[in-house]
Amino acid sequence: MEIIASLFKKAVPIFILSLSLLVVSCGSNDSDRDLSRDSLLTTIEPIERDFEDIKRSGVLRMITYYSSNTYFLNQGIEVGFEYELLREFARENDLAVEVVIVGSNENPFDLLNKGVGDVIAANYTITPERRRVANFSRPYNIVDQMLVYSSQQRKRPQTIEELSGSGIPISVRKNSSYHFRLLDLIDEGYDLNIDLIEDGMETEAALVQVANGNFRATVADDNMFHAANRYIDGLLDGPTIATADTIAWAVRTNAPDLESRMNRFLYKHFRISEDRERPRRSTFLNVLRRKYFEQSRQMAEYYNPEWQYQSIGIISPYDDLVKQVADSLDLDWLLLTAMIAQESSFNPNSKSWAGAVGLMQIMPQFVDVEYEELYDPVTNVQVGANIIREHLDHYSYLDDANQWAFALATYNVGIGHMADARRLTIDRNKNPNEWEYVSESLLRLMQRRYYQNARHGFARGIEPVKYVEEIMNRYRTYQTVIALAEHQQSTGLTNALSPSI
Fold it and tell me: Rounded to the nearest 5 degrees, what angle is found at the Cα of 80, between the Cα atoms of 142 and 477?
């Protein structure tokens, strides 16, 4: 069943990233360089959406790329250095995070100014060109830019002077900080051969192509190179071409409150010494660094295409099972998968404080199934899918978007509290068939003056509201990841999903 993307009026589209390997050669004349720098600029005026508006919506929209250090799925669970750091900021501000993956022909700064997203969290180096179109938070990392060669490259210059005039093509994405740095070096008199690669192929994908011998050289941040070098064979380090670049989040120029709050958050986790050589990091940030930039199981799994796409499926270990059950009940398997992620994080042995068990957190007292059998993934998913199918049928007279929102909320909070919320919506002279208004009533059922007259009493309405919101956010992201993986497999690429800049 196709789910209407605009479940909420403020819902954000997720853009599909093309994985074309088209490589475009770049000349080094002055007009080309000026055009390359100017092409970053956005002509779109930023919308009015600062922290107060974000807080009102309850969702912080993160513009990023699908990569091992920004955002990716690990057995169906959303992870990535940028994602976890921004999620912590969102958690402290009682916000959910929605991921917006940048498409190959999309300008992330356009997406930012249009309001498609609220922050670019993509390992972005602060550059003068970028400062012209966005504001940046305090930095949360310092990196060096380094040249990376293929082990199949016979000649490997170890200084910029040796690299100058060598003719070795350096493959980088247009408008990346690496591209700008190479242009600066050309302006300084170095004779460099820049190859501009397709917009959808970022640093990590370029490293894979270098390792495979398809590119002779590229540029990467030192921490990204050392992380990738542990799991990708065929990479050799070259000279450093820039030192002490600062990494930060980009926000709209007219969102000072959001920027200020992000700065206060980052100040707790990262501070730069005067010599810029001894940054101080919080325990939380050091844990993230070890997790994503030093040897870790998640990173090894990300770089192992056999594990990622053959051993357990594209989204989770239960893809085949969920597809089979979903097909039998005319359900969208990705939505069912998003529910499982929300309910149990794909742990078949999970048990909640309330006694709900298994992948879909079934309450034993409400189903005619032996307790032990509910820990069996097949049984649990079948039971949970039947329940959500019944809820969908109960709301079959609603349009597709509201039908799913009501069904998901009912799965979470129960049909009694949903009935109370709809009655309260009528009392408020609002449409009881619109999730926008019923969700507001669910929140009111946490207040005594409303729940004291409700048939089923107090309801922790914030939970079903967030439940629906987070599942739909995850569902849209899953759709994008599926499209990326299908394109990758159809073109025979390995680990070419777009990483950070």
Answer: 135
Q: Domain 319-471 has what CATH class?
A: mainly alpha
Q: Which candidate in 129, 202, 343, 470 is catalytic?
A: 343
pLDDT tens, residue by residue, 477-493: 888 878 776 665 655 54
**Residues 355, 484 contacting (CB under 8 angstroms):** no
Q: Which run of H or of E encompasses 135?
A: strand 135-136
Q: Show the CA angle centred on residue 133, arms to residues 198 and 248, nearest 5°.
A: 80
Amino acid at 121: A
In sequence order, the 6+-apart residues with CB closer than 8 A to the CB of 432 are 422, 423, 425, 426, 438
Instruction: Reply yes or no on whether 343 is catalytic.
Output: yes
CA dihedral (98, 289, 267, 244) positive or negative? negative
Low-confidence ranges of the chain (pLDDT < 50): 1-36, 305-312, 493-501
Task: Name the segment(s) of the chain with CATH classification 3.40.190.10.
Answer: 143-245
> pTM of this prediction?
0.73
Report yes or no: 124 and 250 within 8 Å, Cβ to Cβ. Answer: yes
Please list the alpha-helical segments (H only) found in 329-432.
333-344, 377-394, 400-413, 415-427
In the chain, residues under CATH classification 1.10.530.10 are 319-471
The class that CATH gives domain 143-245 is alpha beta
Tokens of 293: 């930039």
Which stretch of DSSP H or E encloses residue 142? strand 141-150
Query: In whole angstroms, what is the distance from residue 44 CA to residue 133 CA?
Result: 10
User: pLDDT value at position 103?
Assistant: 72
